[in-house]
Protein 1
Amino acid sequence: MTGKNRQNYNKNYIAYVNSFDPPTQHFKNCFRAFLTGGLICCVGQFLRYIYEEFGLSGTELAGTVSVTLIFLGCLLTGFGVYDRIGRNAGAGSIVPITGFANSVASPAMEFKTEGMVYGMAAKMFVVAGPIIVYGILAGTAVGMIYWLL
């Protein structure tokens, strides 16, 4: 096949593949992600108001709200609800803290049949592990720069 024929073949193949792929609705996807992420943050703010009524403040309040959101993310993942939310909301469900909880709980549930050590414990941080490592390294680097200045 000559170079020109190969280019035409590639263009025809790409057009054939794209004919089966539905067009992406960018505005609709961004709107859903915005609404879902905002709703998760509103739930967090509501929890904050509730916990303030119980007398929590400062770091206790922030920690309690974070732990509650992580618990809710794991609970919804366990019931299979968070996957449906993510399918419809996209990045809006991944970005908040509940998305991080989902990224830890999902692999743990998926690999539990392989055992507690080699399954759940080893595979739990497959998705979240790089995020944790990057966060620790970035935090250390920023702390060192701040310390030197």
Protein 2
Amino acid sequence: MKPSILVPVDFTDNAFNAYLYANNLAYYLDCTLHLIYVLPISSDSESSKRSDLARGEKEVLQSKLRSFSRWHPNEIIEKFFPVETSVEVALGDTAEQVIKCANKGLFRFIVCGTRERHSSREKWLGTVSSNIAMQAGIPVILVPNHAAFTNLDTIVVGCDEHANDDFVLAQIAILSDWFESQVHFVHVQQGSQDFEVIERDILEALVALQKKTLKVEMATIEGVDVVSALFHYASEKKADLLIMISEKRSFLKDLLFQSMTRKTAQPTSVPTMIIHV
């Protein structure tokens, strides 16, 4: 059974851009795609009122999802591949339903679109994509609305004491092997931290995991704002993917939940993968 890539869809251009990115990624990594649309509700009472409506709409929305996966005007100028695709319609809180779906399937990644504009409610509560990234147990790729898939020639990894985690390095090895990527492990130094031992562990683990020639570069840069420093480095290197490794309730609470998706969408077109340890 092939692994799959999960793509939340709200039928916007941003969602299609993320779907197109996932379509390319699925094609090259030999995965299937699963599109999910969540009909949002704000309360239990609304849920009971909308249950009949949701049942009536489900078939229409599934058909719309299938059409969404087959055709869009952007296909004229972008690469699009015939990838096996399934669809699902759910009712409830969007992030909650996406996580529920991710937990019950064999998914390699979740791919979410991000937006430049946010409502006042989202500024306080966080965007749907950041909530998904904070809660997911699998890697989440946040795709800015102008990002287009290219071969992952250059991958930048935000590197701290968690970067030598076996699961993290296995994910990096899969991508870098397939795309023959140059991988930059970048540590943003704040104070007098010694990173040399972890660098050695990373290299030894990657040598064991990778099947093709190892192309790795280690870098330490100064920075007060870790996220901004990594985005700046990724932009300078013309990275095709930025990977950030996090502990769910600390790093993301401070950085991702408050501003990650806005920073991802605005200063750079580099898609960002969040991996939890």
